[in-house]
Amino acid sequence: FLMSFRTVEPLEYYRRFLKENCRPDGRELGEFRTTTVNVGSIGTADGSSLVKLGNTTVICGIKAEFGAPPTDAPDKGYVVPNVDLSPLCSWRFRSGPPGEEAQVASQFIADVIENSQIIQKEDLCISSGKLAWVLYCDLICLNHDGNILDACTFALLAALKNVQLPEVTINEETALAEVNLKKKSYLNIRTHPVATSFAVFDDTLLIVDPTEEEEHLATGTLTVVMDEEGKLCCLHKPGGSGLTGAKLQDCMSRAVTRHKEVKKLMDEVFKSMKPK
Amino acid sequence: MEGAMQTESKIRADSRTEPGPRGPGCSLRHFACEQNLLSRPDGSASFLQGDTSVLAGVYGPAEVKISKEIFNKATLEVILRPKTGLPGVAEKSRERLIRNTCEAVVLGALHPRTSITVVLQVVSDAGSLLACCLNAACMALVDAGVPMRALFCGVTCALDSDGTLMLDPTAKQEKEARAVLTFALDSVERKLLMSTTKGLYSDAELQQCLAAAQTASTHVFRFYRESLQRRYSKS
């Protein structure tokens, strides 16, 4: 009976749990799903990571290529993110050009990179005006169970920390770039932006880390991206029910705690990695 | 309504001078709004904020494609066309923001299995573009007679490097600012419907900007009311 009630009246089913201050999967309203991260699993990429937030799985692969710097900023490189939501991850997506959700997610990641200054684009320049690194960050969702933005931000951060770029020198005689694959160095990651997503139910209740089902039933969503000094890189609230300033404050405090959790997890992972 | 009704309103009698002193400076640019200027859409509006101008047209409630049909409410669609070039990923992202804001206020349940399409064309961009788009969309929805539970307005705040707050920044001010925050607020309780930000800022600054935006939105809603009063009082 309970399963059919869930199919017929999903919102009522959810409300019964929310009244008791918990959710059907047993979590509390402010609790995140189990987060696991794995770095360096893709051998052919310059940097990679796999992040699992409960069932939501996102893999990020970063490839570094050469490119000419833009004419209006000759000492900057490029970071090009692309989020791919394929039919593999959810029944909602069809194959073909990226749908709206994928485009919005790509734009969101691009904004986070730009706003948080996670890497200085000047670090990617090899020779001003002639040669710079272009980092193509491909985020592929393998399983969409809600909260794609948090998983993508985390995957991107972990993969960028894993990227090793070889040393490049420009040979003055031939004007060609010489790549020294034996000498590799890590990128200089300046800040660690961490995203925390919330879903708003019935205009009043805020729950953290929504699953796909919860995202459908919610009346609004909110994503806060915070870095370690408590500065906000992004407050993404694409419409939905209204929030008061006080509710926003609660979200900020939750985002601060989440940042600490994620940072701790990442430090553990990178400490345990054997040096190449 | 016969012809187009034009209403202009100067929120501050003088034009914008230097940014206000520390704390919320409340000088918004000159507003103007024109409704019912296009004959084909069910509702249309042109909203001007300083030199930024957006034209909005609303078609609806109209027939919806079966693949997009929702059984118990109207399907809202927003199309944003930039001034030059083809629409890209950034436009899609803004369309999603505007669409979700409209979905929160439009009473879709009164028109199930229909579609309401909002088409926005950027005529000129001199800063605060998203806020101008939101205002134009709201005025066009009102002109089309789409039932809504509240009106909404867009307000942009810019924070420069020493923390001074500027409302309704011009394109130059946006470029030089450390952070640009755009909010959509509803008219009933001034709650935050939509927010999108660029740049780094602290939590306290966010609350400050939100408070300033809420005060500024009072001016915008007053302007909406006056312009609609002027339009309907003539008939």
UniProtKB/TrEMBL annotation, chain A:
Residues 31-166, 193-256 form the Exoribonuclease phosphorolytic domain. It holds the Pfam family RNase_PH_C. GO terms for biological process: exonucleolytic trimming to generate mature 3'-end of 5.8S rRNA from tricistronic rRNA transcript (SSU-rRNA, 5.8S rRNA, LSU-rRNA); nuclear mRNA surveillance; nuclear polyadenylation-dependent rRNA catabolic process; rRNA catabolic process; TRAMP-dependent tRNA surveillance pathway; U1 snRNA 3'-end processing; U4 snRNA 3'-end processing; U5 snRNA 3'-end processing. It is found in: Cytoplasm; Nucleus, Nucleolus. Keywords: Acetylation, Cytoplasm, Exosome, Nucleus, RNA-binding, rRNA processing. Belongs to the RNase PH family. This is Exosome complex component RRP43. It comes from Capra hircus (Goat). The lineage of its organism: Eukaryota, Metazoa, Chordata, Craniata, Vertebrata.
Automatic annotation (TrEMBL), chain B:
The keyword Transmembrane does not apply. GO terms for biological process: defense response to virus; DNA deamination; nuclear mRNA surveillance; poly(A)-dependent snoRNA 3'-end processing; rRNA catabolic process; rRNA processing; U4 snRNA 3'-end processing. GO terms for molecular function: DNA binding; RNA binding. Keywords: Cytoplasm, DNA-binding, Exosome, Nucleus, Phosphoprotein, rRNA processing. Residues 9-19 have a biased composition (Basic and acidic residues). Residues 1-26 are annotated as: Disordered. It is found in: Cytoplasm; Nucleus, Nucleolus. One of its GO terms (cellular component) is nucleolus. Residues 28-147, 151-215 form the Exoribonuclease phosphorolytic domain. Belongs to the RNase PH family. Homodimer. Component of the RNA exosome core complex (Exo-9), composed of EXOSC1, EXOSC2, EXOSC3, EXOSC4, EXOSC5, EXOSC6, EXOSC7, EXOSC8 and EXOSC9; within the complex interacts with EXOSC3, EXOSC8, and EXOSC9. The catalytically inactive RNA exosome core complex (Exo-9) associates with the catalytic subunit EXOSC10/RRP6. Exo-9 may associate with DIS3 to form the nucleolar exosome complex, or DIS3L to form the cytoplasmic exosome complex. PANTHER family: EXOSOME COMPLEX COMPONENT (PTHR11953), EXOSOME COMPLEX COMPONENT RRP46 (PTHR11953:SF1). This is Exosome complex component RRP46. It comes from Capra hircus.
